Amino acid sequence: MSKPRGLRIAGNWKMNQGVAETRAFFESLSKIQLPSGKSFAPGVTSSLYVPALSLSAAKDACAKAPAPWNGIAIGVQNAHWEKSGAYTGEISGPMLLEAGVKTVLIGHSERRQFFGETSETAFKRTVSLLQQGFEVMLCVGETRAQREAGQTESCLREQLAPVTFGGSTGPLMGFWNGRLLIAYEPVWAIGTGLTATPSQANDAHAFIRKLLKDQVGPDAAAKTPILYGGSVTPKNVAELMAQPEIDGALVGGASLKPDSFSQLF
Ligand code: PGA
Questions:
Q1: Domain ranges in the chain?
Q2: Superfamily of structural domain 105-262
Q3: Residues enclosing ligand 1, CB less than 6 A?
Q4: What was the pLDDT predicted at 1?
């Protein structure tokens, strides 16, 4: 299946897998061969967002793994907008660059829900990291209460407002080239086993793309990959990825085991 923006299969380990488990994951993954052989299918790329303490082990083990697994980009799950300073518990862009990281997850719903992340702080992280050369995967998505109240679109509009602010000459001018990815993850579907139906997901993606088109421009809309996340598994991945507006998957639970992770490809 050929996709205009390619297809990204991304894993989010959340607060799982320390150094030993990370090494064991790649050891087992290395023994698995894809039906497509030593490469991902044409247009497919992969990234894995690991805990910061497992980053070095993941990068080493990944580099030693056979193709295609050595092509996975290893990233982290959050980073601060400032380059250094008094921000206890945070990690900065320069530290990540030094560690060889190229991709960062930002604004995941668990960070919004449990750690006070707002659309504004997620935006500050996003713009700073893009300016420092990273790829950023920005997560958005409505809660169950918002969906039931018919507020899915207003929620997505609010979460993306700082990003689209200023349109084609806004703070993200020059970055609408595919280095910013958006992950649509309905909160009610995360870790619950409840997946958005392919058409529910496709509709939300189409809405986001229209928002980008109307507020930033056709180029931004055409180049920004929009991934779906929320209980994606080897069983439902193909049907979701077949949707025209879906450019990839961000996968939590099913990315933790080498078997299920490999079956996402
Ligand atoms: P899940 O998590 O696949 O376990 O639902 C997805 C995510 O939170 O990124």
A1: 105-262
A2: Aldolase class I (3.20.20.70)
A3: 12, 185, 190-191, 229-232, 250-254
A4: 60
